[in-house]
Amino acid sequence: MSLLNRVLGALARAVTSAPARPITQKRPERPVPPERPERSERPVPSAPRTAGTSRTALAGPTAPGRDVEVYDVSVRGLPAFAYSPDPDGQADPGEVVWTWVPYEDDPSRGKDRPVLVLSRLPEGLVVTQMTSKDHDRDAAQEARWGRYWHDVGTGAWDSRGRRSEVRLDRLLLVAPDAVRREGATMGRTTFEGVVSALRTHWS
């Protein structure tokens, strides 16, 4: 055997006897997804606000309207007036009491107001509503709406000592048990002034 053949044989045996090294394959890189644009935050609309009523009122079947009605002076005439206050717990002519008064534009609704008792009839009390608003300032405007007032000054019926007025053009007929609470007694002279103003207005 020649020297060349012996060298080639030795190389072949060395390659065959050497441990095989594992071949690692490079894993393909995963594509990076494109960056998603940020979502803009949309404001959540708030629920609509429910407007409330600025005045306390009773309505529908809970309103005591059946106990209060308009006293029609044009049909029945003015009642007989008799100043007779009596601290017996019942409403009498000359006393200021509180009762439910219906609104003119919607008689099914109203609110508690002070009223002056003018007369007592078999079917109820004839009263006129009172207010602490000064209608001397807007008398002409009130007259255009058919509302007329008479000043009665101050009294124990208003704890804040405000001047009060009574309405002349609208009288009410109230059931005695519809009176909420007793307020105070109006002086005789002031009461007679109201009676005189009513007779002048309705003459």
UniProtKB/TrEMBL annotation:
Superkingdom field: Bacteria
GO terms for MF: DNA binding
Database matches in InterPro entries: PemK-like (IPR003477)
SUPFAM superfamilies: Cell growth inhibitor/plasmid maintenance toxic component
Region (Disordered): 14-65
Biased composition (Basic and acidic residues): 26-42
Protein name: PemK-like protein
Taxonomic lineage: Bacteria, Bacillati, Actinomycetota, Actinomycetes, Actinomycetales
